[in-house]
């Protein structure tokens, strides 16, 4: 029996490469590189649904990129667009550390809590016949590269997130994976993942999903 895994996140779930210069043409790592597809290759009995939106936050409408960056609305749409699903991964929080949001680590974690509230609501769980959630804490930000001005103060915040996410996941009976214990962000832009990091994360997520 084939099961379905919904991967919900931002540009690092979408497969965006590190930014070398601002304004460069859009492109995306191919299916052999993205961590979602790496995980799919290790989960032969699972269908993988990729729901990664560059710029997505856990809770904030973005004044620059648009109100649709608010992950709460995005998750509701995804959970009604796909299914039934058997597991959900949520990897968000990097964009919430942007300077313009002024969010504390606790506020960022509260955004993840809101997404868990949506995913574990009675209506949603009944719709899909029940599913487990894996909370993935993104690796810490490096304040360097062509978009560093958007992330002033972000590293300090992001370093506090793993412990907060872990405690939240335990309180909500969700699975937890600290991506920062497996990979690091690219030094090119301090935010996105290099191909090798995608491979390593895909392997770790596949293992974590099997544990669910």
From TrEMBL:
<dbReference type="InterPro" id="IPR051532">
    <property type="entry name" value="Ester_Hydrolysis_Enzymes"/>
</dbReference>
<feature type="domain" description="SGNH hydrolase-type esterase">
    <location>
        <begin position="7"/>
        <end position="199"/>
    </location>
</feature>
<dbReference type="InterPro" id="IPR013830">
    <property type="entry name" value="SGNH_hydro"/>
</dbReference>
<dbReference type="InterPro" id="IPR036514">
    <property type="entry name" value="SGNH_hydro_sf"/>
</dbReference>
<protein>
    <submittedName>
        <fullName>Lipolytic enzyme, G-D-S-L</fullName>
    </submittedName>
</protein>
<dbReference type="Pfam" id="PF13472">
    <property type="entry name" value="Lipase_GDSL_2"/>
</dbReference>
<dbReference type="GO" id="GO:0016788">
    <property type="term" value="F:hydrolase activity, acting on ester bonds"/>
</dbReference>
């Amino acid at each position: 029996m084939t099961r379905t895994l919904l991967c919900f996140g931002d540009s690092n779930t979408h497969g965006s490469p590190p930014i070398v210069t601002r304004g460069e043409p859009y492109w995306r790592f191919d299916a052999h590189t993205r961590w979602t597809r790496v995980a799919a290759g290790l989960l032969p009995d699972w269908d993988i649904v990729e729901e990664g939106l560059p710029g997505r936050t856990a809770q904030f409408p973005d004044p620059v990129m648009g109100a649709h960056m608010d992950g709460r609305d995005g998750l509701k749409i995804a959970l009604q667009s796909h299914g039934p699903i058997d597991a959900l991964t949520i990897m968000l929080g990097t964009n919430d550390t942007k300077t313009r949001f002024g969010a504390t680590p606790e506020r960022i974690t509260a955004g993840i809590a809101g997404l868990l509230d949506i995913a574990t609501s009675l209506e949603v769980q009944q719709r899909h016949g029940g599913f487990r959630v894996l909370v993935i804490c993104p690796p810490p930000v490096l304040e360097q590269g062509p978009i560093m001005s958007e992330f002033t103060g972000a590293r300090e915040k992001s370093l506090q997130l793993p412990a907060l996410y872990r405690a939240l996941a335990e309180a909500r009976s969700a699975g937890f994976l600290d991506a920062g214990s497996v990979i690091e962000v690219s030094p090119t832009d301090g935010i996105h993942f290099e191909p090798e990091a995608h491979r390593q994360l895909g392997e770790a997520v596949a293992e974590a999903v099997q544990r669910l």
